[in-house]
Amino acid sequence: MHLAITTPFLEAKGGVERVVLKIAEHFDASIHVVRYDANSTFPEFKNLDVHVHHNAFGKLPLGNRIGNAIEAGSIFYNLKLDKSNDYDIINAHQTPSEWIRNNNSPVLWYCHSPNREAFDLYQWRMKQRNPLQKTIFWAAIQAFKRFEFQTVPKIEYIFTNSKNSQGRIKKYLKRDAEILYPGVDVERFECKDYGKFFFYPSRITPEKRMELAIEAFRIFSKKNKGWKLIIAGALSNRPEHQKYFTQLKQMAGSGSGVEFRTNVPDSELLGLYARCFAIIYTPLNEDLGLAPLEGFASSKACIAINEGGPRETVLDGIDGFLVSGAEEMAEKMCMLVARPELAEEMGRKGREKVETQFTWKRFLKRFEEKTDDLLQLL
Q1: Cβ(157)–Cβ(111) under 8 Å?
Q2: Do residues 232 and 349 both lie within one domain?
Q3: How does DSSP classify residue 316?
Q4: Which of 52, 129, 276, 372, CA to CA, is 20 to 30 A from 140?
Q5: pLDDT tens digits, residue range 218-244?
Q6: Gap between the Cα atoms of 137 and 118, Å rounded
Q7: What values do phi and psi take at 8, rounded to 5?
Q8: pLDDT band at 324, cuts 50/70/90?
Q9: Do 270 and 162 touch, CB atoms closer than 8 A?
Q10: Same structural domain for residues 152 and 244?
């Protein structure tokens, strides 16, 4: 079987890119993208067959986010692959790569989430824009929905990564989706210590709500001296991300114990997981969230905001805590510091969970079963 993968961008080291990489390696798949930065994403992509597609009219002068989205949409909507040579099945990932279904079939979509800009984050995004930006954003989203609602009903099968995303797919796209949890490379993670710092690993973007983590640490620090909060992850050059990063640094202030580390290599990230005391995680209605799972793989407890994906991955009181806000998060941080044996026990239970429930072997086995089903229907 020849599997072709579509995803708009390979420019980061995130959960989506990890899933694409695992599938591509397993099936020796070709990958079709609009943007590819070999130095910013996982280096293993250099060993795979990556095709970068361009449209006829180039990039539109509408700002990076909207311009990139329109470019990607037009490419995938109009792209026609050669079924006799290029693929037997197409596996789409991030939106709008599912629009490849307009001219190609069958398509197995691993929907990490419906477009959050267009649906569950739409009002939140609108509040951050001035009147002109709101008008442009509204028009772009209306156009997106027109093509999305035209294409998605044709897609042969949909996998998704969580109950949270499954609910969004049903609510916004009126389609059923099967949950297929991504795996964790457990063998890459270890526990070396329970150091005097909490760790928030994530891309530095507004929807990760790192200000909540900083506020929780500020409250915690009033009673616990000598501790740190380390925030580490990818930081893009997008103006909104740079602005948010500046705001976070101003909020943290100097001498606060909050440290930022941006675009760190994997070895440093794994070291932070291995040596931290516990993970804290505060994103806005996250699809699933790999940080808690990677923390568990490092035998670390996770204190997460009680919404979105963490509700599926963090068992409250068993391998971590689910909290309602900064004050409650600070309380749980204080509890774990006062009872380090509890933090270690939670970490052990988290490790056991990812070793059995979140493996790539399980993921790829089910994925392969469904591709076989689709081939038999052809």
Answers
A1: no
A2: yes
A3: B
A4: 52
A5: 999 999 999 999 999 988 888 889 999
A6: 9
A7: -65, -40
A8: very high
A9: no
A10: no
pLDDT number for residue 58:
56
Distance CA(222)–CA(112), nearest Å, equals 39
Q: What is the pLDDT of residue 63?
A: 52
Show the domain range for 364.
3-183+359-377
Q: Could you tell me if 179 and 293 lie in one domain? A: no
Looking at the fold, whether 212 and 63 belong to one and the same domain comes out as no
Q: β-strand 107-111 against 49-52: which pairing, if any?
A: unpaired
pTM of the model: 0.85
Long-range CB pairs of 186-190, under 8 A, 24+ apart, other chains included: 186/297, 186/351, 186/354, 186/355, 186/359, 188/270, 188/297, 189/270, 189/273, 189/274, 189/294, 189/297, 189/298, 190/270, 190/274, 190/298, 190/299
Same domain? 331 vs 347: yes
Is residue 22 pLDDT above 90, yes or no? yes
pLDDT grade for 57, boundaries at 50, 70 and 90:
low
| Residue 49 confidence class, pLDDT cut points 50, 70, 90 | very high
Domain count along the chain: 2
What is the C-alpha separation between 49 and 85, in angstroms, rounded?
Answer: 14
Amino acid 62: pLDDT: 47
Amino acid at 140: A
Cα separation, 110 vs 354, whole angstroms:
21
> Per DSSP, what are the bridge partners of residue 159?
110, 178
pLDDT of 65: 66
- Running DSSP on this structure, what letter comes out for residue 120? T
The answer for 324, left when phi > 0, alpha when psi is -120 to 50, beta otherwise, is: alpha
Residue 64 has pLDDT above 70, yes or no: no
Query: Rounded to whole angstroms, how far apart are CA atoms 136 and 113?
Result: 23
Whether 10 and 88 share a structural domain: yes
Instruction: Quote the radius of gyration of the chain (alpha carbons, Å).
Output: 21
Residue 27 predicted with pLDDT over 80? yes
Q: Which of 186, 190, 202 is nearest to 362 (CA)?
A: 186
Please give the Cα distance from 350 to 297 (Å, whole number).
Answer: 7
**Segment holding 195, helix H or strand E:** none
